[in-house]
Amino acid sequence: MFRDRIDAADRLAGALRHLRGLNPLILAIPRGGVPMGAIVAAALGGELDIVLVRKLPAPGNPEYAIGAVGEDGAVYCSPEMRAIYGSDYVDQAAQEQVQRLQTRRAMYTPVRTSVDPEGRVTVVVDDGSATGATMAMALRSARARHPRRLIAALAVAPPEVLRDLETLADEVVCLESPEHLMAVGQFFTDFSQVNDEAVVQALRQAAQAGLLQTPDETSRPARQP
């Protein structure tokens, strides 16, 4: 369906063109969502930041998410998944992932805090979601900070995931919604892994392009549309 994340981001920006002129805050989910978020922010004349969440991996299957956790320790896990895997496992996995999130925060934004979405049109961007867990956690985290409007934007996700996300966001924009989705990467010709160095580089380039607040700007009010 997509050549690569650049192709998906360009198409996603087109689907979000109604936000131009509103100075939207683009919250990208690391790691794959960050290069896409930078492209979307530039196309919409918005501002880029990250929202840190980690999936809770199933035992023995680290690619399958049974839930997700935010950097504040808040856990998103359905009662069904807790019943299957047990609360002890879920809580332990959440603690481990929070530690990894703290490491990522120090690596990605070592000298600044995150941008406050309060009162702003806010778009959470990711390359796709097979289970919806990380996007759901990101939306919950953003919603708690009182954005004016909250939008979920993905390249690909199955219909049942989109229905769940519609209960958490004011708008859901998804380019492709196949009935059967085993893995997001199957819908990209090139789905090369985005490593931490690539995320840092994307954020650095966004700062140079004026899409990302630099340390001396974090105390200033957000740009007004």
Automatic annotation (TrEMBL):
The keyword Transferase applies. Keywords: Glycosyltransferase, Transferase. It holds the Pfam family Pribosyltran. One of its GO terms (molecular function) is glycosyltransferase activity. InterPro entries: PRTase-like, PRTase_dom. SUPFAM superfamilies: PRTase-like. Residues 8-176 form the Phosphoribosyltransferase domain. This is Phosphoribosyltransferase. The lineage of its organism: Bacteria, Pseudomonadati, Pseudomonadota, Gammaproteobacteria, Chromatiales.
